Every structure is written in C-alpha cells, then in structure tokens.
Amino acid sequence: MNPLRRAAARIARERRLRGVTRGVAALDIAEAGQAADGTPFVRLVDGPIFFGLPTRDAYRPYHRLLPSEQRGRIPEMAFQVALDIVIRYREGGLQLGGPRKEARYRVQPGDHVAEMGAYQGFFTVHLAERVGPGGRVVAIEPVPENVALLERNMAENGLSQVTVVPRGVWKAPANVSLSLRPHDMQSASMVLDHAAGQGVDVAADSLDNILATAGVDHIDLMLIQLNGVEMEALEGLTTIAPRHLAIAARYGGRSDAHAIARFLESRGYTTELLPGGFVFAEGGGRPDGAGADAATAAATATSPATVEVSGGDGAPGQHSASESKDRDRTDQGPLAPDATAADLSTAPDPSDRDLMVRGPNGSRDQRRERSGDVGRDGSGDREIDVDRAIDADRPGSRTDLANRNAAAPR
Questions:
Q1: DSSP per residue over 17-59, as a string?
Q2: What does pTM read for this prediction?
Q3: To 10 degrees, the CA torsion angle through 286, 292, 297, 302?
Q4: Which helix (H) or strand (E) holds 330?
Q5: pLDDT digits (tens, 9 = 90+) for 185-227
Q6: Where are the alpha helices (DSSP H) in 26-143?
Q7: In the CATH hierarchy, which fold is given to the domain comprising 99-374?
Q8: Dihedral angle at the C-alpha atoms of 334, 340, 341, 343, nearest 10 degrees?
Q9: Are the C-beta atoms of 127 and 100 separated by less than 8 Å?
Q10: What is the C-alpha separation between 294 and 307, in angstroms, rounded?
Q11: What values do phi and psi take at 199, rounded to 5?
C-alpha cells in the first residue's frame, strides 16, 4: 500500500473516532457506571437506560479525549456503552456513516416493525419509543450474549411492545453455526468465515415462522442486517409483504444489493440502491413473488436441519480467493469481501457510484449521489464502523479497504 495513502487512512480514522467521541461528550447523561453484577450502563437524562459491553482496550484512549466534566461522569468501563448510544440509538444508521435506517420511512405511532440484527437493543429502544404502546417491535438477534443485553434493555425500560426473538434468520428452520470475529459481537455471520474468531451454534428459522409465532400479521418497516444472508431471509418471507424495507446488503454473493433489488422488484416493490450496498424498498409488495414457492416449501419443514454454507472450494463457511475476487466485483465496488491489497489500484471510488432507483418492472432511473444523501457526522466527514476501525492496518482487510477509499480525495 502507498505509504501516503496509509498515513491518510490513519488520519481519517483518528478524525472519525474523535468525532464519535465528541458525540459522547454532547450526551446529556444522568448516571453511568456498573450495575451490581458488573454490567456497564449509561442512563440518559429524561431518557432510557442502556446496558452494554465493557469498553475494549482499543477505545480507552478516546475516553481520555472527553472534557474533564464528562470524563468524570462516564467511567472508562462504560464508555463503549456511550459510544453505542451515539452510533446506534442517536444516529441509527445501517452502517456508521451510512444511510439512516429511517431515511425513507419514519416510524409512526402504532406501527409494526421487524428488526433483524437487533444486537443489544440500542436502536430497538428508539423503535419502541417511536411505535409507542400501541405498536409492536419484533427484535431478532441470534448471539446469546447480545440477546441477554437486548432483553435486559427492554425490561429495564419497560418496553412491553417489544418481542425479543433469540433466533438466527434463514429461509427455513435450521441449526446453524455463526462465525464471529474476536471481540466483535456484531460480526456474527452464517457465510463469512472470520479467521481466528469463534463459532456459535444457534437455532434459526424463517421470517414466516418467526412473525407468525410473534403474532404479527403486517409489517410497516422491516430492517435487515444479517451479514450475508439477506437473500435467504427474503426467501423465507412469503406470507407478509412489508410496506417498507431497509437492507444492508454489503457482502456480495447471493445477497448482493442488485440481486436483492431485482428480487424485491419481482414482488412489486420500487427499490433504491445507495452506494456501499444499501437497498431501500417500498410500495405494493406481493408476498408471493419470485422465489416464493421454494421458500414456502423450505419453511414448511417440521424439524430443523443442520445447514452448512459452503464457499467456492466446498469447505463449510469458506470462500475461495478466486470466488471472492470474481463475484459481482462491479456491483460490490470498494467494499467487496476478501479484497486484496492488489485489488486496491482498480477499486472504484465510492463517489463514482450511481444512486439507482428502479421500479417494479426493473426500469432504472440513474442519477449521481447527492452530497448529504448518506448519513454523516457533525463535521460532514464520511464515517466508518467503530468496531472495524481499529484493525484497519491489516493489509487487504475490508476495514483497510474502506478506510483507504474514505481517505481518497473526493
């Protein structure tokens, strides 16, 4: 990698993390510390209380950047909870610096919302506040450690309108293995193989079954963040047609953003693609669109099967280098998974990507991305995911690639 680009990426990363820290400094915090069981928490003035994970070593230096008054109010142990409040509860993006989950539809009182990848419930609390006691939120999260915090955050805030579903999402009932990166509880994936990470076996089910069990007969907004199995989730949704969808489809393969858009268009939706692999859809969706027959047959299975997702080399959870390099490179752009350092010279700049709006018949209306279309911090800089920012020096990593593209002249 060009030393100048590496230096620019480090500067950009530092600036963005400092920006998030400024957001923490602006929080109106009533109390922060550790609960009796040692779990860190932050309570906002006239607002909710959040429980989360202890602060990672990599984030501790940023705690020291807080003004002295706020630093005294937020113990170092609870700093990561405060970060998550800014990033997830306040910002609420499909990715840090990406479009907001409610960019195309603002949740209304009484709405029914389904949230996949609910994590520890930071944005779930926001959704519950928006729908109010007359609405419903179905919060789906597979990682046991996250589920415990998700359930605690709902209980501590008295949010009975939230139904927590401790399941993975797949196109049919199945027992699946998730791969997580070390110290990254938001990275769980059925198809991405995180080297040196950990594996977690969980039960998964189709959206048809999950929503039926929750007693939900319609969805006003569906949020899908599943780290690579977004298409499989949609294939398992055949009985309900959500009015609006916001999907993070950033990992290529079957769940490439363009493939997701075509699938939704076949069900009668109008779709919008934003740079970075984000799909918004709305309109008169049909639950019986293309792919529904196969998904219905899979969802009717009465006993779970064990699913192994194989990559191009046939190894469970693996993707061969040639497959990763070849698949949908044009569509995925600079965030293509498994990109190598050698790919960087030809990776397109995100600013050259078109914003694309497509109707139910597949017609396209292309126009350039407008400045400000994608979520930004107070300084106007594009941001990256804090949990992925620290390992950006590893050549060829997705974070490394994203940082370098973010640091490129715009």
A1: HHHHHHHHHT--EEEEEE-TTS-EEEEETTS-EEE-PPPPGGG
A2: 0.71
A3: -50
A4: helix 329-332
A5: 565 555 556 555 567 788 899 999 999 999 999 999 999 988 8
A6: 60-63, 68-73, 79-84, 122-131
A7: Rossmann fold (3.40.50)
A8: -50
A9: no
A10: 16
A11: -110, 145
